Amino acid sequence: MKPPLFLFRHVTKRFGDRVLLNIDEFAVSEGVCTLISGDNGAGKTTLLKIVSGLVKPDSAKVQVKDVEMSWAKARAKIQRSVVYLHQEPYMLDTSVERNVAYGLRLHKEPRASIYEKVAEALRWARLDHLAHRNARSLSGGEKQRVALTRARIVNPSVLALDEPTTNMDQQSRISTYQLIDELRNEGMAILVASHDQTGFTPIADHHFQLLSGKLIEVEPAFKRSRGTNITRLPG
Q1: How many helices and strands, by DSSP H and E, does the chain display?
Q2: Residues 216, 208: contact at Cβ < 8 Å?
Q3: Are 166 and 225 in contact (CB under 8 A)?
Q4: 203: left (phi over 0), alpha (psi -120 to 50) or beta
Q5: Theoretical Cys-Cys bridge with 156: which of 67, 83, 144, 160, CB 3.0 to 4.6 Å?
Q6: What secondary structure letter does DSSP report for 144?
Q7: DSSP letters of 40-85?
Q8: What is the pTM of this model?
Q9: Strand pairing report for 206-211 and 214-217
Q10: pLDDT digit string (tens) for 181-226?
Q11: Where are the beta strands (DSSP E) in 103-228?
């Protein structure tokens, strides 16, 4: 078994007198999908943002390739490896294809390479028929697929998803589950904070409930093979 990409230890975060997070250990591993559930205000978003290098914890140690360091020292490494997606993805006021190409343009990829990669990514997400639509005109489910595609094309090691199926119809949810499962099978580490336990249980390798600041592992109801019980859309 490969060592974790990142191993977070002794993660704490307080708001005033309230201890929001007090987590002994949390591993982020290649090709593993981890579901984090919990009540509103339990700290799911805060944990994802700490793991993404976006919110500073009160304390945390991070092990990277067998070297342990403070969260502050590890932050740059974390931010180079993790893409965090908010539950309401931000869309640039331009076409779907230009939204998907955004990260490649920032990295100054050659134009021909960008064109090829964007075309392949849109086919992967079954969004090629929307390539020239303004991304802000899309439905919530379509925007989430654009955001997943925009993340995939820059090839992060870790994808952190905050309530990715909120306000979606069933067909959009199924499509989103399928794309996330494919990303995990491609080797990406996936972290999902969601109330949608039923939909993500077949995808998740691990399920933790965040309760009183602690991560409590939820025993799976069944042993699954990858892809089991995931409804597939045609195409």
Answers
A1: 7, 10
A2: yes
A3: no
A4: alpha
A5: 83
A6: H
A7: TTSSHHHHHHHHTTSS--SEEEEEETTEEEEHHHHHHHHHHHEEEE
A8: 0.88
A9: antiparallel
A10: 999 999 999 999 998 888 898 899 999 999 999 999 997 654 444 4
A11: 158-162, 189-193, 206-211, 214-217
